[in-house]
Write a structure and sequence with these properties.
Radius of gyration: 20 Å
Largest sheet: 8 strands, parallel
Distance between the termini: 59 Å
CATH topology of the largest domain: TIM Barrel
Strand content: 15-25%
Oligomer: single chain
CATH architecture of the largest domain: Alpha-Beta Barrel
Length: 376
């Protein structure tokens, strides 16, 4: 099928009441959409586009005909798919509201906090405990920096960094994700008490990863990155020259890696997707992806979004360094929540949880049908 179809929510709503009931709940979250665009692309060009509301959906989805119409109907169903909670050890992480994943880097060279917790187990333990106390649902432990230009890490070194952190987080009863692209690291972490894989290469870097994840039955995050080897950022794409339409190309790649994971035995309900903000993408690419986030629900998996302290924030604010990007991080987190992101991967857990709680309060209030309330 050379032509491809995309069903993209383009008009968000605070709740169905705002649209007289003509809005859908996006992927079981607290986000709603009332207007949509059905887009057909072929040969790099848009050949068909129709904007429609919920009540015109059946007619609009059938317009492309044949296999494209069937795919449009699948995407429409996926937009409304309610995702089951993640079971991570003794912890159940519900996906009907935005959850916060706290970052614990045990590396010497991460862009934000490299070296702060490496070989300092007391500091790392205290930081993990503080994130859990502040409301982090999951602790994501990483032993390799994936910043642009970062050197690849030897698997043995990565295990030595990650394993102790997994152990002390497990002793707290934390739900633990491991940010790695190496099967050996994940396997070692699972034996120490980790529950989840977060693979920035979408299981393309290490051919053993798919079999391990499938056999362990652990949830996995598949992230979009253009590079397949050591350089995930694929320098030849940083100028945008190899991208046609960034949104549809990231969508197509995530669909492909998701299908490959399922074909390899990974349970569909254990897959989470991440558009890979900042990985091999320009500022314009990142902004386009963030504005199109609701589209990615059409793939049928929960969405994780990692924008915390990313360089794009500095690019939009006088090149502020990573530790001064809190305001931008929160702005992007709210943007992701508005789009129905299920999980936010962040460095600054307490303030993000506070922002999430206020956002959730506004969403709860919006679901009240004020026309049914008695007069004051």
């Amino acid at each position: 099928m050379s032509a491809r179809v995309y069903v993209q929510p383009i008009g968000l709503a605070t709740g169905p009441q705002a649209e007289d009931g003509a809005a859908i709940r996006l992927a079981g979250t607290m986000a709603y959409a009332a207007r949509f665009a059905l887009i057909v692309r072929e040969g790099g060009a848009v050949t068909h586009r129709r904007v429609f509301g919920m009540r015109e959906a059946a007619e609009a989805l059938s317009e492309p005909g044949g296999e494209l119409a069937s795919e449009a109907e699948r995407q429409w169903a996926n937009l409304q798919l309610v995702h089951a909670p993640l079971q991570l050890g003794e912890r159940t992480v519900r996906l009907d509201q935005p959850q916060v994943m706290g970052v614990l880097n045990v590396t010497p060279d991460s862009f934000s906090d490299g070296g702060e917790f490496l070989e300092k187990p007391d500091a790392g333990r205290a930081h993990a405990f503080a994130m859990l106390e502040a409301g982090a649902a999951i602790i994501d432990i990483g032993g390799e920096s994936t910043r642009p230009g970062g050197a690849a890490t030897w698997e043995g070194d990565e295990i030595e960094r990650v394993a102790p952190a997994v152990e002390y987080c497990a002793s707290m009863g934390a739900a633990i994700s491991v940010d790695t692209r190496r099967a050996g690291v994940l396997e070692a972490a699972l034996t120490k008490g980790a529950h989840m894989a977060n693979d920035v290469s979408a299981m393309r870097y290490d051919p053993r990863m798919v079999e391990l994840v499938a056999g362990a039955g652990c949830p996995v995050v598949l992230m979009h990155a253009p590079g397949a080897g050591d350089d995930l950022h694929a320098k030849d794409k940083l100028d945008g020259g190899d991208y046609g339409d960034i949104v549809s190309e990231v969508f197509d790649t995530l669909r492909s890696v998701r299908e490959a994971a399922i074909a390899g035995g990974v349970a569909e309900e254990r897959i989470m997707l991440d558009p890979g903000i900042g990985f091999g993408k320009t500022l314009a690419h990142n902004l386009a992806l963030l504005n199109a986030l609701p589209l990615f629900h059409a793939l049928g998996s929960p969405l994780l979004v990692g924008v915390s302290r990313k360089r794009m924030i500095g690019a939009l604010s006088n090149e502020e360094p990573a530790h001064k990007r809190l305001g931008g991080s929160i702005a992007l987190a709210v943007k992701a929540m508005d789009a129905g992101a299920h999980m936010l991967r962040v460095h600054d857990v307490p303030v993000t949880v506070q922002a999430r709680n206020v956002w959730r309060g506004m969403r709860d209030a919006a679901l009240t049908d004020f026309t049914q309330l008695p007069p004051l």
